[in-house]
Amino acid sequence: MKKLQLSLVLLCAAVLTACSPRVAQPPPLDELEPPMDESAMSMAPEYDGDAIAEANPFTTDAYPPYEPQGDIPLGPRTGSGEWVEDPALETVYFGYDQFQLDEDATRTLARNAQYLQRNPNLRVRIEGHCDERGTDQYNLALGENRSLSVREYLVSSGIDPSRIDVFSYGEYEPAVQGTGESAWRWNRRAEFKVSN
């Protein structure tokens, strides 16, 4: 009888252990790779800033000069060396897990390039940002790739590369707090700071 009871207890313990939910342990950061669809990667064309510049119908001549509205500060104090926001430079937004420039981004960058051409004394820092999905390491790399794509476009538009710095914040400085696409879409971006 005792053997039967002991067998039933052991059987119940084994069943309960087998039916309990498993807690997945995340792999170490150095073993993580970004999710990639290999078939999509093989079909995607290589990013070529020169080809985009040649095919871009949005030339910088098509936009009127920027005129300040009221008392908006237009960049840093002369010689301050600080990186500050300049309201004339527009933020560029990206799709999920993307660093390639879409049509909206190239239109925005054409306006930004025109402004930088008219203000040759300004240095610009491009800051890449991501939403909260992905590992810290992956998001820092993605933010850097976003900054580099923007830099490549500006250089192909005639901006001297020595005037451009790139930086990645990854997911660490979100524009909008929260979860879900309504917040994430504003966090996948490249912002501009200027100095002289």
Q: What this model shows, in words?
A:
- The protein is of the alpha+beta class and 196 residues long.
- The protein has a domain at 82-196: 60s Ribosomal Protein L30, Chain: A, CATH 3.30.1330.
- Helix content is 38%, strand content 13%.
- The protein has six helices and five strands; from the N terminus they run H-H-H-E-E-H-E-H-E-H-E.
- It has helices at residues 2-19, 38-43, 49-55, 103-118, 136-156, 181-187; strands spanning 84-85, 92-93, 123-129, 164-170, 189-195.
- Strands 1, 2, 3, 4 and 5 form a five-stranded mixed beta sheet that branches.
- Strand 3, helix 5 and strand 4 (164-170) form a beta-alpha-beta unit.
- Helix 3 crosses helix 5.
- Residues 39-45 and 47-78 have low confidence and may be disordered.
Order of helices and strands: HHHEEHEHEHE
The radius of gyration computed from the alpha-carbon positions, rounded to a whole number of angstroms, is: 25 Å
Overall geometry:
elongated
Please provide the count of β strands: 5
**Highest CATH level, the class of the domain at 82-196:** Alpha Beta
Q: Strand content of the residues, in percent? A: 5-15%
Q: Mind telling me the CATH superfamily name of the domain at 82-196? A: OmpA-like domain
Secondary-structure class = alpha+beta
As a percent range, the share of helical residues equals 25-40%
Q: Quickly count the helices.
A: 6
Mean pLDDT: 76
